[in-house]
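Worked example

This section walks through a single chain of length 325. The input is the sequence exactly as stored; nothing has been trimmed or padded.
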Amino acid sequence: MLPGLAPRRRFSDLSEQEILALAISSEEDDARIYRLYAQQLRAEYPASAAVFDAMAAEEDGHRQALIDRHAARFGDVIPLIRREHVAGFYARKPVWLVRNLGLDKIRAQASAMEHEAEAFYRMAAGRATDAETRKLLGDLAAAEAGHESLADALEARHLDGDARSDEDRAAHRQFVLTWVQPGLAGLMDGSVSTLAPIFATAFATQDTGTTFLVGLAASVGAGISMGFTEAAHDDGVLSGRGSPVKRGIASGAMTALGGLGHALPYLIPDFWTATAVAVFVVFVELWAIAWIQNRFMETPFLRAVFQVVLGGALVFASGVLIGAG
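Given that input, the structure is written out below as tokens.
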């Protein structure tokens, strides 16, 4: 055993009192997570925040029922036992990860939480020997199983069709601003700006190894530069474009990917085979950029094709001419 790490208990070794204590702490944790979801969503998605406020209140009711049962059967002193103390027990995401979830992922995570809680209560009810405790745990299992219906009912109350559509549109817009827009800018920069140095090196040296190293350096360097630039120039507070770290990652990664796409073929030893593959990759990259512009940025497809393909072709031609000259 590593120093400072306590051994985890098996669920089958827990006493009935410990099972109740575990259930109490689990309900408390889930209520806190729902309130954190509500707090995170309140500014942009107030109707969904109201749903999670109500779900947190429901978990509070479960916790109080468990505390009352523990007090009646074992007294007021509740053992300290949490999910992380039990081997194989489901664990919730750390708070710093929960804070970064989007609206759709929060909804999916909440649904998964209810399914996990239902499974726990069914196992716990099977272990209980006291009739009242067994009934309470069984009722809570049924309640957790019905929480999907509860969530639907709460959404029907707080989220009418217009509110749900408005929130879904806002979530899509935030996704575009935080991930798609900087990622697209990075892909365009990485794909187009590296064309000239890579193909100039290729035709000047006709050495695939040297061309690959130049392409790798250009792609990685451009990715680092674009990532830091995107993260540093806008903190997202006033613009509403979201986390600068997320935007920096999207921009940097896609910039590097755009350049590496036509650098990697030069791992092929034969120069003309590598060049043919690289040209094909460039063609795919440019059409992918045009499709993303049309799909997410609502740019007319023909205009996107004209802008991207023409610009890329001019940069490609300049690189070939410089290298061949």
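What to look for: The chain has twelve helices and two strands.
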